[in-house]
Amino acid sequence: MKRLWKYFLLTCMSVLFISACTSTKDSTPETKTEKVRIAEVTRSLFYAPQYVAISKGFFKEEGLDIELTTTPGGDKTMTTLLSNGADIALVGSETSIYVSLQDANNPILNFAQLTQNDGTFLVSREKINNFTWDQLKGKDYLGQRKGGMPQMVGEYVLKNRNIDPQKDVNLIQNVDFANIASAFASGTGDFVQLFEPTASIFEKEGKGYIVAAFGKESGALPYTTFMAKESFLKDKKDIAEKFTRALYKGQQWVDAHSPEEIADVVVDYFKETPKDIMINVIKRYKEQHAYATNPLLEKEEWNRLIDVMKTAGQLKEDISYEKLVHTEFANNVIKK
User: Which residues form the SsuA/THI5-like domain (predicted)?
Assistant: First the structure.
């Protein structure tokens, strides 16, 4: 009887021990996932490292759940950020300068660079075998939004080629950013400045022909960066650094892999774009070093941006690199 009682007690203790261990394991809180809302200025293969970082799970590895929204045009993207419709904006650095000129109490800071030169291409309605920039003179030129990065870089390049965009060409700027491609396809303009993959699709369909790359002409500058309110970067410092680390992984992955491999990873973001077009576009961007290989925005690039804006007549005084560029997170993830 004593032996049976001892056996019963041991069995009960074992059950209690196992239950306690199971209870402790089950009650362990799961890793918290933080949602981060991104507003991107357009959907383009120009932003391949971002889509790679999402698709490869680099943001998830950092505990971040990315909610990506496309808000066509720099003005709409910045409005979305300022009105708290997004935590982070992917847009041209010039937008942060425009906000700072309004004496914003909560300035918009550039904290991670994605692209390091212009991603647009000059497309001609007619096929030109030996294009020279002076062939633009006297032609209808369908440009981008006044004060936006594509238009300012376009004017910067034209002036460097001794072409006055206000006098030597018939500059058309009354078309909304989202409708520029369709306007050209409908017959507006002899030349147009387009992003990829639209430029290559037009070429394949015979609607236009790529004759020059603005990125090769302009030099390195912070064409597209991730930016956020100063308050967000202070209050959500941990999230901002995790975000930058995930982006860096995406940039390194793109730098190390072929256009074919990259296209396979980002295909879900461009379901209507033929695979051969995607590969060709990515190859073109890689060859002109459009993709930044790390998130650090360099001072020399910032100074070129200031020069571009001054040349376009959109900026009268310098805006210091230290005022609007936050390098802490980029430096940290690169070092680690």
Answer: 48-257
**Helix, strand and coil percent figures for the chain, each rounded to 5:** 50, 15, 35
Return the pLDDT at 30: 53
| Helix H or strand E segment including 47 | none
- CA–CA separation, 225 vs 111, rounded Å? 7
Q: Quote the pLDDT of residue 144.
A: 87
Question: Which residue ranges make up each domain of the chain?
Answer: 34-117+221-335, 120-218
Q: What is the pLDDT of residues 97-140, one digit of tens each?
A: 999 998 778 999 999 999 999 999 999 999 999 999 999 999 99
The sign of the dihedral angle between the CA atoms of 201, 204, 207, 208 is: positive
Q: Which CATH number fits domain 120-218: 3.40.50.1820, 3.90.550.10, 3.40.190.10, 3.60.90.10?
A: 3.40.190.10
pLDDT in tens, 1-38: 444 344 433 444 443 343 444 444 444 445 688 999 99
Cα angle for residues 267, 272, 277 (degrees, 5° grid): 70
Q: How far apart are the C-alpha atoms of 302 and 165, rounded to whole Å?
A: 24
Residues in the chain: 336
For 31, 93, 327, the CA distances from 60, given in Å and listed in that order, are 11, 27, 23
- Fold identical between 34-117+221-335 and 120-218? yes
Which pLDDT score is estimated for 207? 96
How much is the pTM?
0.83
In whole angstroms, give the CA distance from residue 37 to residue 35. Answer: 7
Q: Report the candidate in 319, 254, 255, 317 with the shortest Cα–Cα distance to residue 95.
A: 319
Provide the residue type at 157 as one letter.
V
